């Protein structure tokens, strides 16, 4: 009897220990090993009772800080100070520059369309754009600014309020990093280090100061990780409590928010999903958790982490659809059924038709009164994405004996399979035509040019004839395969003489074709790219009682699913190269950045903080190496994972490493255009991982020594931030300092755009003329970009460049693909780059334009003086030599073609270094050089 008796040990630690003290009192005791000290060790009966209630082993469900955030009052004060510092860093000079920066071209334009309720298509979900639009709306923006070009000055736009949204979310990311590491049981010093690393990370600062989407994305990623860590701590102590449900539900809402900003949020969902699977797998092996309790855990997570994010995501799109109730420039990407849910759409049946391409997003078969510059030089045929009268065609029977088809007096006849037809363009009265000429872009033997040929009253020829092949009908309409029906009949058009099929693909014509989609006649046509359908049709002889085929207007789910497919297709199609794109292998090494803005001898260039960046990359590699080493040791029989310290840091660092990997490696599978800012969510995990490694390495050191090491790292991070801060804020900088800051040759920000000395910024302010040895000349010819020639001291041509009269540097383009309907912008390049690398265009021969030479400029060449004399004779006005515009007598120099034709001269030309140019002299110069105007 006594041999079977086992006395129970007293509770440990004793009630008087520091673990039983109030949290604020416990701050004076040595910090516990684990983040949530147990009040007592449970005996076997208590463990069974706790397990029966769903509590994890070793916990009784007694009171403890919600989410495991056992943070003292002193830490809250410290965190408040950190937030103030972060706000100062990110909100400093937020109103500068006062012009459009990088992708503000796109996202500012989307805000305008939201306010004007005009439908558009973007490759990103709507949440971040809606937040920016809300700020603009609250501050009275009317949506009239076009955000057309980088560098365009803001007028009547609350751009500071719009920039404030990503800036404040960037500030909020800082305390989240602190709280996340504290929830992961890292020391306060470690959390402080992480928060200051993120505060002074140049790339995150630059991205959060403009109307861009990546700052909201990183914020919601950080919020999701923090809420999930809080839930995991709650799950260890008191599952299915009100706090437990709160943390889990908030985690699901945050998952919905992160994927509603950008689809990159799917990687965050994968991170949390993988962690959930590990939890459920661990519970499945715990015999103290009954199958019924495990099923409760499973369905609770499925509800909050799958259903709640999906509902949140769809609600964002419902708001999107409710706001964009009117048609806009995004219509052409959507189906006809979708378009007719927007305002101003009607449809009927007849013989004047609009024909749409099925497979690509090009839109309608289109023609306009402009000819091809090559081939037959006949009228262009294109695909155009918007509704327009140039999309209208009349269908005629091609079997008549060369006589004009009288559709008003002929009996009504429906189009049947293999009927031979002609298509006449209603505006220009020319026929859809093909012949043995190569297309202007796809110059291959198996493709023929498609053009519009003929004249009013001309009956056409055999090259205008096409056979109708109905290839698919609607199951709801049995007649749709027997005769041509609007919307429901899908057909191909086979050329009568050559046998090729009317075809289109995602190849766009050059500027002379207005960059509309190319249409050809393809003998080896991909089936899907040669299928068409008739969207609208009218005929004057149809009785009012004639059967009409109407759209079945899609509901929310149909519209939602169609838009997801369009976004996916458009996103995958962003494969064009960009001057500042980069591939994932270069991101952890910070090989290059992105040029955001160049103007007034200032520049904004996205580049990270090298110290923070490389330290985080080192931590990622170090964890992978050590984890692999521990696995090898385990194979040899070592029991490292029996050590509680190893288990703790392996779980902590492993979670952050998996988060980094899932946000980084999927980009290697993408063929689309990628940029450095796509690495920012992965960078967040890498920074937290570097601080977790710091926590492990310094775990055996005294707190004061640990704090001193952290202080050194923070000082280095702040110094690196300050060293490159002019590129983040677009503030004055000198060329020499810029050159010294180029630690890598691949960092391609342009130091030639900065002045030699800070005093030059103070003398004339923004846009002042550089030193005399670098003359920048004003030009005659009105507003816009005009060609000029600059001469050196010997009168020789030094460079040819295109100078924008409003801004000194050549303005460039933001990331292409967001605004899939906008005009294609140009690359950002500095003046020196453009001068040294003129664009490869067809040379245009034209006269040079006279320029004003300042007194400090080089001596005017003799030949130029002769032309000045001619100008004097023409104007018959006595003018001093130094006040006249000088002209070069070089004969027909080859200069860069202007980007836009200059407007006629106004009453006064732009002021040069010597003031206003004489009006009569300007007119005389224009007569002397008529080509320059």
What does this structure look like?
The chain is of the alpha+beta class. Among the domains are: 77-322 and 606-722, no CATH class; 343-550, Trefoil (Acidic Fibroblast Growth Factor, subunit A) (Trefoil). 38% of the residues lie in helices and 11% in strands. It contains 23 helices and 18 strands. The protein has a six-stranded antiparallel barrel with strand order 1-4-5-8-9-12. Strands 2, 3, 6, 7, 10 and 11 form a six-stranded antiparallel β-sheet that branches. A hairpin with a 5-residue loop joins β15 (785-791) and β16 (797-804). α6 packs parallel to α9 (214-237) and α7 (188-199) packs antiparallel against α17. The radius of gyration is 35 Å and the shape is globular.
**Structural class from helices and strands?**
alpha+beta
Overall mean confidence score, pLDDT:
76
Major sheet: size, sense and barrel closure? 6 strands, antiparallel, barrel
Helical stretch tally: 23
Strand content: 5-15%
* CA(first)-CA(last) distance: 115 Å
Low-confidence spans: pLDDT under 50, at least 5 residues? 1-42, 343-350, 764-836, 839-865, 875-922, 924-933
Spatial sequence of strands, sheet with the most strands = 1-4-5-8-9-12
Instruction: Name the helicity range.
Output: 25-40%
Shape, please?
globular
Radius of gyration, in angstroms, nearest whole number: 35 Å
Total DSSP E strands: 18
